[in-house]
Amino acid sequence: MKQLSRFPEPFSIDTLASELREYESPITLYLSTAIATIFTVQLILTIQWGSPSIYATTGFLFLNGPEIAWILSPLLHRGPFHFLANILLLLLIGRVTESHLSRTRFLALAVLSSIISIAALAAFALEFGSKEYVAAYGISGLVFALLGFSLVHLQIHEEWNEPDALVYLLAICAVLLIVFEVGKVIILQDPLQVNAGHVSGWILGIVFAYAQSQEHCSVLNRAF
Length: 224
Hints:
Shape: globular
CATH topology: Rhomboid-like fold
Strand content: under 5%
Order of helices and strands: HHHHHHHHHH
Helix content: over 70%
CATH superfamily: Rhomboid-like
Number of strands: 0
Keywords: Hydrolase, Membrane, Protease, Transmembrane, Transmembrane helix
Transmembrane segments: 27-47, 79-97, 106-128, 134-154, 166-187
Number of helices: 10
GO biological process, one term: proteolysis
CATH class: Mainly Alpha
Subcellular location: Membrane
Largest sheet: none
């Protein structure tokens, strides 16, 4: 693993902000705009319907308009904290990761991780949950996919700047969180203690990074 000495020194918030502004990351920005727009619609519907919470409004959408709800599921969020945490992490991690991938590959990773993470959440809820219906949504599967990708890719990438270093630290935090959740599963004998969407996205990101690291990776080269 990389040593701490490879981190840029001294670490500066001003330098971090300046370098982030220099990134061209249209896909991340378009996706973040779409998420913010959808959340605004969720908020408006919550007010108009007199719903007790955005969470309740979203559940109502899945019950009464499942086709639309499932299509939009990666863009939906259960409340302000869920929305802010995901969009802020996406804006940081997405901007950095997009600079290490072609736009086609970044878009492919975004689409695949969104689909796979939502499917994993739904499958776990159906298999181990007690409810008769499930609602799985949120963009955190993509966030964890980007962290999984960064964990591997930045090991190979020789030169780091402040944004790279910060994303790598977040990638390590993601590993610790997943280990903690898996430990809870083992101790409590409850599979729902782990977020299947996070883990599936994280694994996909790692696989994607290893595939890209292979100079003659025929699958990625042919597809993207």
